[in-house]
Fold this sequence. Notes:
The chain has helices at 74-80, 117-125, 144-147, 187-199, and strands spanning 7-12, 15-20, 23-29, 39-43, 53-60, 64-70, 87-94, 106-112, 130-137, 153-158, 165-166, 180-184, 203-207, 223-226, 229-232, 239-241. It is mostly beta strands. The longest helix is centred in the C-terminal third of the chain and has 13 residues, at 187-199. [2Fe-2S] cluster binds at residues 214, 219, 222, 234.
Amino acid sequence: MEKVKMNYSTEKVYENIEIENPVYKLTIKGKFNGKPGQFYMLKCWNKEPILSRPISINHIDEEKIVFLYQVVGEGTEILSKLKKAETVEIMGPLGNGFDIDNIKGKVAIVSGGIGTAPMEYVAESLKECKVDLYAGFRDKSYIIDEFKGIVENVNISTETGREGHKGYITDIFKPELYDVVLCCGPEIMMNKVIKLCKDKNVKVYVSMEKHMACGVGACLVCTCKTKNGNKRTCKDGPVFSGEDII
């Protein structure tokens, strides 16, 4: 897979809107690069010790880059207050994404909550595959309309029963129908998806979400356990083969 050059820059916000509490969509105009599954480190504060926040690429085209993020702490709370024309420091693209060129056949994308955000760019890139989306949410879905023109089938679950299947997305996901499964979301959900795929002998790749400090593999804050020892989620991942994850 071709390497993508990392850059650091200060950019102006084009748009930063709440799409579903507490999820925001940040758009920056310009030419950016990045592979599906990669991320950028974002920062718009001078306070310490608040470090940059890792945000996955939601969408890239010739005019802009889009990030979707959920407010979960002080850093993302500050990000959510950004207004049009204010500045944000970004560094990336970082990490190893999904190896799109070697994913063939019928593909299932399985996501949970904000883990759905990077999978839009993944789905857009799987042009030669037949793709189905399985997306789970607690109460209300978001960005699902963005998938409807780029995947064949959309399956939704909500824990409250407000939309789609009432329960978990793993209740209705059948890995035996697919050649490859790509997954991103809460760790408990990804563990379930990995087990389901192992039981049916289906290849699965997962995008891990860990707290990060540097984003370039130097600090070792984001290590995860694999069959080949501890790996850095930011540098060696965030995408790993499901069979390697412990």
